[in-house]
Here is the input.
Amino acid sequence: MKRSINSLLMFAILAGIFTSCNNGKSNKNGDRGALSSNAAEKVYVAPGEHDEFYGFFSGGYSGNLTVYGLPSGRMFKEIPVFSQFPTNGYGYSEETKPMLNTSHGFIPWDDLHHPDISQTNGKLDGRWIFVNGNNTPRIARIDLETFETEEIMEIPNSAGNHSSSFITENTEYVVAGTRFSVPVPQEDISIKEYKGKFKGALSFLSVDQETGRMNIKFQLMMPGFDYDLSHPGRGKSHGWFFFTTYNTEEAHSLLEVNASQNDKDFIAAINWKKIEEYVNNGGGKKMPANYAHNVYDHSTHNATSTMKKEVLTVDPTKVPGAVFFLPTPKSPHGCDVSPDGEYIIGNGKLSADLTVHSFDKMINAIENEKFDGEAYGIPILNFEDILAGTVKQAGLGPLHTEFDGKGNAYTTFFISSELVKWNVETREVIDRQPNYYSVGHVMIPGGNSAEPFGKYAVSMNKITKDRYLPTGPELEHSAQLFDITGDKMELLLDFPTHGEPHYAAGIPADILAPKSKKIFKLENNKHEYATLTSDEARVERDGKEVHIYMSMIRSHFTPDNIEGIKVGDKVYFHITNHEQDFDVPHGFAMIGANNAELLIMPGQTKTLVWEPKQVGVWPFYCTDFCSALHQEMQGYIRVSPE
Ligand code: CUK
Ligand code: CUA
Here is the structure.
């Protein structure tokens, strides 16, 4: 790729020419894309019937994960992860507040980019889904029986946790790569000292196979580039992980003159098995680091937050044969590995071509020690030696690729706003379909695993414009569902998503649905403040603190008349839901309580704090319509002067 074309692309990006495929054409009623004639039939899920797939969509700056049915495009749930969520009190209740602890304090927001479902032998197993927080670097694990966030690990020495949270083929590790290189450890130095001083930490978090608990096994301290996306090897390339980089110029200000000069940046190939072995034999260096590890326990219905004090770091030059650079044109963004583990596709976002590296060739070059120089002591392989081929003139601005398991790849092109299907072996383009508009990621259920379910592809578009009724200048993003079972992709459906979905993960419903009927047994409730029978319901005063042990069942609270509370007290409502039927929550709201409501599932205990400021008699009520007597589910608290 010559520099002049690069400049042209950069111009297109800077000028905001996002909808080039639309060419100013009116989209009103007429131009609907390649709409299949029986599209309605293909996405119609009759009332009472279920969808074939779950789709988990990142909520971007909503901080949450949303759950959709495919092919219908119906949204089932929003799972709060990095955000306080008034709907069910996550991040507001005393039990869940610790989930949002970090070394920077209580941070109830983040930018969630990439969900990835746990795997066994490279196949989706539906145990957990991992997601990243981009801003205050964190990785969260959501349990797929309860659809609740169970764990959040902060990532030290990292900033802009972007090449995350992808997993190895047996969920041995979930990775977290830094987008920004930063001083490690942090220090007060001139930004101009970036080059050579800043480091890019790539973290490998081991996952306990029983509990799912994460632990930062090691951090690889890479040169100060920007690390973008990553993908695990699988099959023959199991044991490797690949990370795209940009700004290998190490500019501290990323105007084009600084950061897009190199014709090629790198994909970093990491042999994590080698590093694991090195670390297991006592290699690496412990360094002090402050980071929070937050865990939610389903028996105590409580989260705890622990501050960790050190992390193990590894210098890549100390582990020979573990880290290599694969030159890849032009500022690669997505990095995707084919289901058989042979092809590593680098989507150079300033390019019109796609680069396909060969894993076999890479190993060959490494074994023959055929290097083309080095960067900070890390060998650079020769581009021609490792190249399987290029997909020529495939589109403009490639971002991400998924696979259908039938030998085809599907790559999104942001600038030319299209989804392009091509054959992985021949690298010939088979079909292209416009996307409305400016697509980011594409998702095929299992499409980044060894066993994709190649029936549908969903493109997640950045610009919505005229796809829906206008709702002011702020619109939800637009997703598009394609049938990919034929040679040509068929557009079936548009549906709005919530927040900004960067990526999504899909899984057949029959893997997940049977598990998620779980309910919490009241007799297993180990919450410190649980009220297990209504006889135990009571009010206890401890100085200015008042603990109300309350139970709830259709359709009353026990106790429901409370006196003896004073202005200036701190009142804790510890409420236990005594229902034991699936899908019978109760809610709780207290007038003047400045946090959210609680939504309490059968068998659970949750706590809301209330600090009354005014004397009087104040009501509380159940917020969830639970029976014909729901409206009667209420009570009063009398507040007397101090
Ligand atoms: S990134 Cu958003 S389009 Cu965070 Cu996966 Cu490429
Ligand atoms: Cu309980 Cu409404």
Summary: Residues 519 and 582 are 6 Å apart (CA to CA). Residues 555, 586, 622, 624-626, 630, 633 surround dinuclear copper ion (ligand 2) (CB under 6 Å). Residues 3-14 form the longest helix (12 residues).
